[in-house]
Amino acid sequence: MTEDSEFDSIVQKVEIWTVITSLVILFLVYFSRSRPPKVQAEDSLKGKASPTLDNLQEAYNSEANSHVMYLNFAEKAREEGYKDLALLFKTLAGAEKIHLDNHARVIKAMGAAPEKIMIVPQVASTVDQEVETTDNLSTLVQHDLNNSVNGESDERQMYAQFIKQAKLDNNSAALETFETALVAEHKHSQILGQVKGNLDDWKLADHQLYVCQLTGEIFDSHPGLEACSPK
Predict the structure, then answer these.
(1) Among 80, 99, 79, 108, which residue's Cα sits nearest to residue 158?
(2) How far is the C-alpha of 204 from the C-alpha of 117, rounded, in Å?
(3) Residue, of 186 and 1, whose pLDDT is higher
């Protein structure tokens, strides 16, 4: 083989590899543009005011107040002898804490700081009552239960609206935390509805409740927790 032929062979190989390299680069550029990573999509929302960020702040504030409200309800139920109802309220407080922590993470990821305005919860008490009878206590506890049911209903409506806006804003992280909270709030309402019709059953400490640490869902059996495992 002459020097010229060897040179031509080398040039041909270089040209082939150049073409292959160019094709690989074009493929990678196309792939990255056609399927942007979720992290990049969320990064584009950082530091930008948006309706969804406002909704996240409102949801965070709502859950923070619900958390405190349920803690107060739990203490009052315990004082009035409703041991399992106190357990339920305390469990609900823990569930709402999971929600507000989830919201806070998304707010921070968007470059903002979580904000809340705490409102002193109105807790039914026997202190101002002249006669403390079993019926009176039941009425007062029902008052707290009604507040709980109304609060859960308000949050369900709130999240339904926030989910629509998160979709419009293409904010997948906010959408996930809103949808997760909405599913849990449905379960909370179901449990509270059951309690309202069987208040006496919640005096004795014989109920067991389990909380999904990811979603804040509450289950009355341990196997139910399997439903909250990461998908």
Answers:
(1) 99
(2) 35
(3) 186
